[in-house]
Amino acid sequence: MSKSCDHIIDLLEEGYNVVLTHGNGPHVGNSLIKGEAGKDLVPAYPMDACGAETQGLLGYVIKQSLMNRMKESGLTKKIASLVTQVEVYGTDPAFQNPTKPVGPFFTKEEADVLMAEKGYVMKEDSSRGYRRVVASPKPQEIIEKEAVKALAGLGYLVIAAGGGGIPVIKDVEDLYSLALIRRSTSFQE
Question: According to the model, what pLDDT value does residue 36 have?
Fold first, then answer.
């Protein structure tokens, strides 16, 4: 993390106002593995909650690392980390053809059970076993974009849209819903 922070510190020292985003794929996978390992003790998180959990965790880790590096560099900058949603269209073709592997590997027999019981889409992954695959719908709009702009305008370094954001779908009443995503082939829980 330190090397990444060094580059951000360079930008801050040059006077740039920074908004950061980050990936979270491996971390969501870890969250899914924890859910699978503990399934007999506690319910596993659904995919959207795994995204929110990892956005929060990574935002915290990045923020702590940056704060420590800024202190070493003599910089003072407020940092805000936002758990961020992104609007996607329920008609996005990605929902019909999920391709992004996530989480643990399973045997063919285990994959067949998960497909039957939970409706997961499972595909063989590089001859290493079967993995769940999820959709990667095209993001249309960051829901919290005004908050990002406002905080950046106040001089904050903003960490937002980790993992591309938590996908939500706007209904006809302009309400955001995960229900449609959870009912889709790729996000069923």
Answer: 87
